[in-house]
Amino acid sequence: YEIFDTKEACFLAAFDAVRGHLADSIAEAAAAEPTWPRQVVAALRVVLDFLAAEPDLARLLLLESVSATPAITLRFREAVLSCVPGLALGRAELADPDSLLPETESSIVGGAVSLVTRKVVAGEVDRLPELLPDLIEFTLSPYLGSERALAMAADAAPG
User: Fold this and answer.
1) Number of separate helices (H) and strands (E) present in the chain
2) Is it the case that residue 159 has pLDDT exceeding 70?
3) Which single residue of 51, 70, 94, 145 has CA 20 to 30 Å from 35?
4) What CA–CA distance (Å, rounded) separates 33 from 20?
């Protein structure tokens, strides 16, 4: 209480610090890639590797934040939805960008968060990088088609 007025304020500061670090890491990894699909792969890899290396922070971000106070839950929701604009850039890969439903990106992000969260809940944080091929295929298929997304997933699979 010397630094923060409430536990909630402390939690939000920690959440924001971790989110900021992760956002910076994602931006750096994506900037090194020449195409949008490869940027998505780089972003997914960074997130999974970071969470696997930091199981306590994975729990903070994905578990504690959704069962805490309404303000913390809202911050989590905002963080998740902040991924939508970057994913929506994939519409440029389509002949008809309006062929996807407006909710496509938020649905993809929500599904990806759900898959990752299930691993965290199961105590399998160290196995998160194994999700990379599935998440690549799941995320990129609406934009690239299943065949091309599957090929990119296969390229990213651990050898």
Assistant:
1) 8, 0
2) no
3) 51
4) 20
